[in-house]
Each structure stands twice: as structure tokens, then as C-alpha cells.
Amino acid sequence: MGLSTHVLDTMHGCPAAGMEVALYSTHGDAATLLQRLVLNHDGRTDAPLFDNASLRAGTYRLRFDVAGYFKAKGVQLPEPNFLNQVSLDFGIAHEDQHYHVPLLVSPWSYSTYRGS
Question: Which superfamily, per CATH, for 3-111?
Fold first, then answer.
């Protein structure tokens, strides 16, 4: 299955439909944008970020537009926002495995893990 992500809005108890996400490859401090997308009604991408054939070992970053999502939901956020963009830097060591990077998020906290 390659690489996938899923975002749950823990403030409202629902998938983060409509959240903007960007995927980068990273090399030290440099990051190269690979794709931008918007999460579907289930808080997921419509297709894997990488399928099995295109998954490569290396380091990557997922950047989630948390403040933009919550503002669009009508949540009044302070200025500046406590969380604006959440960036998750992670590594892929095994091209033959599935990497799922979920995010559980509210305007004030987030959690992630390597899912299945």
C-alpha cells in the first residue's frame, strides 16, 4: 500500500475533511515539494501518497494546514494561532512495507504514530 495518511479532528470528533496537506522529500534542511492535496470526506487521501511501486527509502515531511482547517470550520482562533502548520518529519527504511502516518489534531494539540 505504500504511504498513506489520515487526519482526525479531535475537537469535533470527526475526520478532518477538507484539510490541506503537502508532502515533501527532505535532505538535511532542504525540502522538495512532491505534491499538495486536500483530504476527502473521510479525512484521507483519495489514493496513496506513494503506491508500492513508487515508495522509496528516505526522509519525508508531511505538512498539515491545521489553522486553515479549523478557521474554515468556524473555530475562533487566537492571533497568532497556537498551531498553524503541523509538520511531521519521518523516515522510510523498508520499501516493501506499508507506512501509514495518521494525525489526531485539535487547535491546541496533536498526536501521531506509525499506523498499519
Answer: Transthyretin/hydroxyisourate hydrolase domain (2.60.40.180)
